[in-house]
């Protein structure tokens, strides 16, 4: 049952990130509301409201048809314009910043909800039009349904105003960086809190039995409790060799076990692990480092030449690295006071190198950017309770950055400034 629940939860998370998810739900709800109103109209709801508040009701069939037709045509034009704005946002973000940002922007629920409101109202108005006869008198006309159609159209106009405001905010790089940072920060804080009581010691896995997944995809989620239960049943320890969030190749070693496992057990283990074809920051904080780094690199490219954006990106990377330094590198999970399961992680040294290698390539010739990167590394060195291997990785990157910068600078003044920063 838990396995089924996990698969349903993973499927929902995957589908929810699609741009058509919420619009489809809203469109279906608009259709259901239209059917409900047809049922209520058959039971005389408009006649009762007409007797109480006649000034709110449309009393002529031709007028009702004209009003709803105008609302319907305007809403279709509004939806086309809004959808075009979303596509423009995605295209601009891909060209100016990074294609990796597209999944996060597409999964923005606010855009999906607004498009869903449009679709629901359009479908409601269409089916309401079917129930109107021009020759009907005021007591047989579905006046209340027409009134609701007008009210829903007004709600769409309000949603459109909000949409224009939101779309103008979404394209700003500061808001994009902030959204990525908040998602990664939340993920890292969860991982840090889950590491309480962990140990650094785990058995040597060199000679353990190796198993493959038989499928490929991004390692998205894992049911740790079910895996630990299998470890208890088989009286073994396990090691997941691929860090969560990375791409798994079907013929590469994914699982190691202290004791041999039969095919049914391996299949049961793999069934408790979900694979996807896309990446989300909510599932993999490393992706946030990649996205912010790519934004900085793109900003420093000759075609864009926007050092201000690169500096903002480095500020967010600094804060994320400081938070990452609070997380351990072992990925060991304790079960019944024993180190039973280990999941490979992207180490701090690997993460630091991958980020700095890209930034050095495009920033080593710019004194201001080198100074900013040195400021980041110096700040990280001063973090309290930082592990020794983290400090060593930072020192290595600092030495490499300074060495490359000295070879790239044309001015002795620039060289003396960065040397002074290191000495201070």
UniProtKB/TrEMBL annotation:
- Which InterPro entries does this one have? DUF2254_membrane
Q: Name one Pfam family in it.
A: DUF2254
Keywords, comma-separated and alphabetical:
Membrane, Transmembrane, Transmembrane helix
Segment forming the signal sequence:
none
Q: Where are the transmembrane segments?
A: 20-40, 64-90, 111-132, 144-164
The identity of this protein, by name, is: DUF2254 domain-containing protein
Q: Which species does the entry assign this protein to?
A: Aequorivita vladivostokensis
